[in-house]
Structures are given as structure tokens and as C-alpha cells.
Amino acid sequence: MHPGRSSVHYLPMIDIHPGDKTCILSTLEYMSNLAIKHHVSPVIPFDQPICWKAAEIIRASPGNSRLKEIVFMLGTFHTLMKLLGAIGTLMDGTGLKNILEVVYGETAVVHIMSGKSVQRAIRGLLLVEKGLQQIIVKSVIDDIPEFATIVNEAKKMYSSLLK
Q1: Residue 53: which of 75, 81, 24 has the closest Cα?
Q2: Long-range CB contacts (< 8 A, 24+ apart) of 58-64?
Q3: Residue 44: other Cβ atoms inside 10 A
Q4: Predicted confidence band at 158 (pLDDT cuts at 50, 70, 90)?
Q5: Dist CA 53 CA 24 (whole Å)
Q6: b vs e for 142-153, b when ≥16 Cβ sit within 10 Å of the residue's Cβ?
Q7: Is pTM beyond 0.70 here?
Q8: Confidence check: pLDDT of 3 > 80
């Protein structure tokens, strides 16, 4: 069944500091009521500091509160930060830090490995990936002589397709 024409409209503005627990509680209650009205589960994306405060508010609410049904989703940027921090933690001791220190300063690498410097982390990891890719391709070309011929034929075919 078609739900009808979609629309976009702004929700009411709460004129309080966003980190204030009163503001967060008002938002949680409003979104919970809105979800009940539309018969859906309330899923709310927050950035990390506000998500932490919202979780404290819900944990302190009574057991039968409808706020307990709210599902939190970490905002995209903070999710990316956590992912980059996890990569930094997993790759600790592998030499990644030393490679990145060739391009970036020692202090910057600490922020890259912790996920705090997102743009540098992405750029640095892409540089490392390209470098490793070149090493692997060179190794394969050295080990398998006919591989270079296949790569050259693929380049010619790609160039002809572009024309």
C-alpha cells in the first residue's frame, strides 16, 4: 500500500543549550511521542557527548517509561572517529605509526591513531594503502613475468574503451 506523498518539514526548535539535560529530556520525550503517533520505534542519532547524557537520562527513568524504547545511534562523524580509532588500536605495534611519522609530525600521528584527526587519518591511511599496493604489484610482477604483459594489455584495453 502506498503511504502517500512525502513531505519535509522542520520540527520545533528547543531554545536551550543542547548539552543541557532538560533540553535532551524534552527532545527524547518529543521524539518518543512522535514515534508512538506514527507506530514506529524511535531511533535518534546523537553526537557522542550528548548521546552519553541521553543514555544517563534514560537509565535514570522509571522501568516502565516509554523512553526505554529509544534506540540511540551515534552520529556518522563520531562513528567514523571510533572506526579510525579502532584501526589505530588494532594496528598499534605494526609499524603503521612509524610510516605515518614520515609524512606527519609525531603529535599529529598520535591524533591520527586515536581517530581524533579524521581528515589526516583518512589521507594518511590512503597513502599507506597506495604504497602497500605498489609493493604488492611489484612483487607479483617480479614473481610472475607474464603478469606484466597482462597488465599492459589491460591498460591498452582501458585506454581504447576511454576513446
Answers
A1: 24
A2: 58/28
A3: 16
A4: very high
A5: 8
A6: eeeeeeeeeeee
A7: no
A8: no
